[in-house]
Automatic annotation (TrEMBL):
Its cofactor is Zn(2+). Catalyzes hydrolysis of the D-alanyl-D-alanine dipeptide. Transmembrane segments: none annotated. GO terms for molecular function: D-Ala-D-Ala dipeptidase activity; metallopeptidase activity; zinc ion binding. The active site is at residue 167. The lineage of its organism: Bacteria, Pseudomonadati, Pseudomonadota, Alphaproteobacteria, Rhodospirillales. It comes from the Bacteria. This is D-alanyl-D-alanine dipeptidase. It comes from Rhodospira trueperi.
C-alpha cells in the first residue's frame, strides 16, 4: 500500500449541510454488489482537491433545479479489496493491487436528483449495475436516460472532473495516480470500516 503521512492526506467530510447535496451511501448498506455492508458507518470523505470540485459541480447544478446525490467517495483500501473479492471485474472495479482513485479520495460516484421532489433522474441503469448498458454513450438505454447522463457529464466536466467511460456515475480528478496516496481506513482516520470484535 502506498501510504505516507503528511499534507497529501487531507480528507474532508462531505455532508448534506456542508455541501448542499444528498447522500445515499450504498456501501454502508446491503444495497451494493457485495450484498452486505462494506462500511461500518455511513460517512463520505474526499480529498480537499476533490471536495473543492464537488462544490463547483453543486453550484452548477443548483440553477438548473438539480442536486447531486453521492453514492460513494473515499473508499479505504480494505473496502476496495472487499468489493474486488465480491466482483473481481476490472471493467468496473479497479484492481486493488493497482489502487483505486476512490482509495485516494480522488473519485466520487453520484447521480442527479430533482431539487424540488428529490426524485433521481432516470439514468437507464442503477448505480453499480455491472453491464455494458452502464457505459457512457450506451445507446441501449432510453433517450431520456442518455440526455440525463449527458447532463451529468456536462456538469461534472464543466466543474473540471474526469470521467470513467464504463460507469456513468463515476468521476475522478485528472491523473490521480502518483499525485495522491492510496490510503487505508487507519491512515485516513475516517473510521469507515467496521470495528473488529475484541
Amino acid at each position: 500500500m502506498n501510504e505516507r503521512p503528511g499534507p497529501d492526506i487531507m480528507l474532508i467530510e462531505i455532508t448534506p449541510e456542508g455541501y448542499d447535496l444528498d447522500l445515499d451511501l450504498r456501501y454502508a448498506t446491503v444495497d451494493n454488489i457485495a450484498g452486505r455492508p462494506i462500511y461500518g458507518r455511513a460517512a463520505c470523505f474526499l480529498h480537499m482537491d476533490a471536495a473543492a470540485l464537488l462544490g463547483r459541480a453543486v453550484a452548477l447544478a443548483r440553477p438548473l433545479g438539480l442536486r447531486l446525490c453521492v453514492f460513494d467517495g473515499f473508499r479505504p483500501a480494505e473496502a476496495q479489496w472487499k468489493l474486488w473479492d465480491a466482483y473481481p471485474d476490472p471493467e468496473f472495479l479497479a484492481d486493488p493491487r493497482r489502487g483505486s482513485p476512490h482509495s485516494m479520495g480522488a473519485a466520487v460516484d453520484l447521480t442527479l436528483v430533482d431539487a424540488v421532489t428529490g426524485t433521481p433522474l432516470d439514468m437507464g441503469t442503477g448505480f453499480d449495475d455491472m453491464r455494458p448498458e452502464s457505459h457512457h454513450g450506451s445507446l441501449d438505454v432510453s433517450a431520456e436516460a442518455q440526455r440525463n447522463r449527458l447532463l451529468l457529464l456536462g456538469l461534472m466536466t464543466a466543474a473540471d472532473w474526469d470521467f470513467y467511460r464504463n460507469e456513468w456515475w463515476h468521476y475522478q480528478l485528472f491523473k490521480p495516480r502518483g499525485r495522491y496516496p492510496v490510503l487505508s481506513d487507519t491512515a485516513a482516520g475516517t473510521r469507515l470500516m467496521p470495528e473488529r470484535p475484541a
